[in-house]
Amino acid sequence: MTVPPSELAYVPFVSVENMMRLTHHVGIETFLKELAAFIEADFKRWPDFDKTPRVAAHVPGGVIELMPTADKTLYSFKYVNGHPKNTKTGHQTVTAFGVLSEVLNGYPVLLSEMTVLTALRTAATSALAATYLAPRDAATMAMIGNGAQCEFQAMAFRALCGINTLRLYDIDARATEKASRNLTAQGFEVVACTSAERAVEGADVITTCTADKQYATILTDNMVGAGQHINAIGGDCPGKTELHRDILLRSDIFVEYPEQTRIEGEIQSLDKDHPVTELWQVMRGEAAGRRDQRQVTLFDSVGFAIEDFSALRYVREKVNGTAFSQPLDLLADPDDPRDLFGMLVRSVA
Amino acid sequence: MTVPPSELAYVPFVSVENMMRLTHHVGIETFLKELAAFIEADFKRWPDFDKTPRVAAHVPGGVIELMPTADKTLYSFKYVNGHPKNTKTGHQTVTAFGVLSEVLNGYPVLLSEMTVLTALRTAATSALAATYLAPRDAATMAMIGNGAQCEFQAMAFRALCGINTLRLYDIDARATEKASRNLTAQGFEVVACTSAERAVEGADVITTCTADKQYATILTDNMVGAGQHINAIGGDCPGKTELHRDILLRSDIFVEYPEQTRIEGEIQSLDKDHPVTELWQVMRGEAAGRRDQRQVTLFDSVGFAIEDFSALRYVREKVNGTAFSQPLDLLADPDDPRDLFGMLVRSVA
Predict the structure, then answer these.
(1) With an 8 Å Cβ cutoff, is A170 touching chain B?
(2) Signal sequence span per UniProt (chains A, B) (predicted)?
């Protein structure tokens, strides 16, 4: 090119390597706490957002989704796939990236990897919900499904809820071994269990995070006792659930965005008008969270675009002025905006 | 990091600079012809695609859109904004980028700038449609609206239809001057006109490509004569049209995807069941294009996701094995796909 691209041409890009460096720079638990604070702040101004169920392309072997949202100032979207059989070929079940843009002119201001960031924001959201819904002084969490999301959940529940004892179970014992090793190294008390029934014994919180795209019953009704909080994050598309319907019927159910959760969440098996409480209303004090110690609470989490918006907003603030992002020549920026063709012609060296 | 990211972590990225280098390497008119061939091939297998109207966020000052589509093998989406007042602050009205992914595992295989590429694919689509709809031996095109898209349209109509005489008009004379200068340098016969009425005199094809987001009447009924082909590309969102309704009523109207065009195109002012012909059916020989020399044909183009799919597919093929793309560390790729957390922990140098 005869002249280098102008400032307007560049979009800060956070690679996987830089996201990991940033996470360590901040500290994983501090990152999760700060991220949860951004999510909470955005949930508390829920009516300010344009909201729409994500746009899902159900493709052979999985799903590819776009998750947009916007307030008056910023727009974001995330690209995310979910392909449960990917691990068989050495691929991630979920990969993701996202973009934050200025509403005023539509220009992207951040492009970021979101495979790592989604794991962090999902965990931060779960633990944030639990601060409103889990029994007071919860100390033990059962984790059924010990895949890629498991350890992030554990870190967030310690950072936000003080939970330090984990009871792990996965149908694949190697997944439990992997999670045990990682979490013991992080200072957790870890109990590796040989069945889901064993895992839930004495747990204050039960987290289900399995990845199979089919109706599965990870938890049966007799496994859930009075006072427990269920953090169900694995059921997140049509045909994919984890809990027996009877559990739902005796739980107080909390959701992110009912229009999306009724399609994708555990409650897809209930009547369309089954009462649910929106988490943002609990955070604003407009609806009750946990009311007593015998209540069964269920966070039927499918992940919502505002959580990604908060995560991108947080990352943008963190990387601003640092070396954790690199400039990407993503946007054409002619001297005269109407002269895109002239820019192209003159670009011949 | 202790180890560099693996092959799976990298997504080829085509920057603005590389897109311009690629365009020159191929040659602009050859690029437009080859791109049109990709678009035509995909239009001819239209039923193979998952199709949905684009997802538009109507924000103050403009619109931000996501345009996804997929066949059985590949998935694509484009991010594109439209902010007509952007030029006042030195920004582009339209900026765009896009991603192509493998359906099989959901992994992106190409990230590309699409501001330049959208201008090229829009022009290629317009000229491709004109090969079916414009009068035989068309030699002269009127162009109303001489902004960023104007010259690309001209180049495509010469490459695909042999049109070499242009009659230009814009309410801003400086835009016409800019386009005249650029197009004269490309060897066109250019007539700069002082009104839209003058511009359309003797034209075989009329291209309207203005950018105002409001109901405007760029063409009134008396300006369009028997046998002309109208290529209307500026009306592309609710409330944004360019043609007087009476023109529509006496034209045979061709569209990309009726579900989207009835919301965004010129035909938004007509009854919901006003007959239109889908361009892909013309290309497959299942519907008539131009039938006689007195017919007024109208391509009511709003741009559709399959055109971007074709463009990304073309660019992917062109950059494969060349230096026109660079690897971007966009995807987390742990050794054990379930051990995302372990990868994060071990990433500390």
Answers:
(1) no
(2) none
